[in-house]
């Protein structure tokens, strides 16, 4: 069954469940109705698993489409350059591919000179030369790598993400206006002074390494139709950087690394004794209302938790026995919990003693900064050649921070015992 058919099947089940819930209120929501809804939810879970598997396969099959998107990005970059710069960019792209496949010792003199000269877009922005032994990736190559980061984790799904050419510390204004009010002013009386008090926070750029990815000689030597070594290297590097950055954007302590959202979020509701591995509907309602209504009305508001937490939340019901989790009809109307959308983040703490396991609020208040310069190194020294391998290493720079003077996101903390 294809993905569309599975989604249609899921939508039909979601409609059936919602109709049962919404048309049977109060005493009308009997045990028989509750059992029917539970059975439908189990069927939805099975369909979701099938959709996830089909989407994973489609992602694998769609790697060529991602490469096409990268070429389109290259074309957009080239359209901004003059003819001389376009020629330089093409030379650099071709030389970079030769660098990946053959290394510097296997390149022609012209290709080596093209790499040393750098990409045209780099020169146009007056960015410094890359580190010795490594080269800045072409615009389309780097754009695909950064876009691929969004496929892992969860933070990039909800945060505000922006890119800069360089990595100098970036001051960001902060202000909390949730308690500010106007006034009534009598005739001929001056208005009171109440200046907005701005603060600033710095968003920097921490240097991340992919660690070395090794590729056997055979893959480089025998590549033919259907084998794209560039794409393989790019995906492997992106996966590693995405995992570590998502972990830091979630849990980082801000010391030598980004400050994670869990770290930055104050506790809005602490679980009562006995809830070290659980949460009650009342806890979640208190957490919701611990966030100022001004933030709860913003488009970025929602929940964030681990998938195992979602499993437990799906079993929570209100006083009439009606589930608090509702399946969405379509992708545009996502599943909700207590009427708010949610994001699964596998780096969120699972429910355990004193864990900040659930976040709620305006998740888009978290800012992620990407530096557009990505440098690739290729290793073909004896440490690798004696194993019949070539090594690749990427360096990229990122930072993340909750940039607000208020508390747009708060956490539920499980009890200590």
Automatic annotation (TrEMBL):
InterPro entries: Phage_capsid, Phage_capsid-like_C. It comes from the Bacteria. It is found in: Virion. Residues 133-407 form the Phage capsid-like C-terminal domain. NCBIfam families: major_cap_HK97. This is Phage capsid protein. It comes from Sphingomonas metalli.
């Amino acid at each position: 069954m294809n993905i569309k058919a599975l989604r249609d099947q899921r939508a039909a089940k979601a409609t059936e469940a919602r109709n049962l819930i919404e048309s049977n209120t109060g005493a009308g929501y009997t045990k028989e109705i509750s059992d029917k809804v539970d059975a439908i939810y189990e069927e939805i879970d099975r369909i979701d698993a099938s959709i996830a598997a089909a989407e994973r396969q489609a992602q694998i099959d769609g790697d060529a489409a991602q490469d096409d998107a990268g070429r389109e990005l290259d074309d957009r970059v080239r359209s901004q350059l003059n003819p001389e710069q376009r020629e330089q960019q093409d030379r650099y792209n071709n030389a970079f591919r030769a660098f990946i496949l053959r290394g510097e010792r296997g390149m022609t003199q012209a290709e080596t000179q093209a790499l040393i000269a750098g990409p045209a877009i780099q020169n146009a922005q007056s960015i410094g030369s890359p580190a010795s032994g490594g080269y800045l990736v072409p615009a389309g190559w780097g754009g695909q790598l950064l876009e691929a980061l969004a496929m892992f984790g969860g933070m990039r799904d909800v945060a505000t993400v922006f890119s800069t050419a360089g990595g100098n510390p970036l001051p960001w204004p902060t202000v909390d206006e949730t308690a500010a009010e106007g006034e009534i002013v009598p005739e001929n009386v001056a208005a009171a002074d109440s200046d907005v008090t701005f603060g600033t926070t710095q968003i920097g750029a921490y240097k991340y390494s992919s660690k070395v990815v090794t590729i056997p000689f055979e893959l480089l030597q025998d590549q033919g139709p259907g084998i794209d070594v560039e794409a393989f290297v790019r995906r492997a590097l992106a996966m590693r950087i995405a995992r570590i950055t998502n972990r830091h954007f979630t849990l980082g302590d801000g010391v030598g690394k980004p400050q994670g959202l869990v770290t930055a979020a104050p506790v809005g509701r602490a679980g009562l004794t006995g809830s070290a591995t659980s949460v009650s509907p009342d806890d979640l309602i208190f957490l919701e209302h611990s966030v100022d209504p001004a933030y709860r009305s913003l488009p970025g508001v929602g929940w964030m938790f681990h998938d195992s937490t979602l499993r437990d939340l799906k079993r929570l019901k209100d006083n009439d026995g009606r589930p608090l989790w509702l399946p969405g009809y379509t992708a545009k109307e996502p599943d909700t919990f207590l009427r708010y959308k949610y994001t699964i983040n596998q780096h969120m703490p699972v429910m355990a003693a004193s864990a900040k396991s659930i976040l709620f609020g305006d998740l888009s208040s978290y800012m992620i900064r990407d530096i557009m310069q990505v440098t690739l190194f290729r290793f073909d020294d004896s440490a690798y050649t004696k194993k019949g391998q070539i090594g690749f290493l990427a360096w990229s720079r990122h930072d993340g921070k909750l940039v607000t003077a208020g508390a747009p996101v708060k956490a539920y903390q499980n009890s200590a015992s």
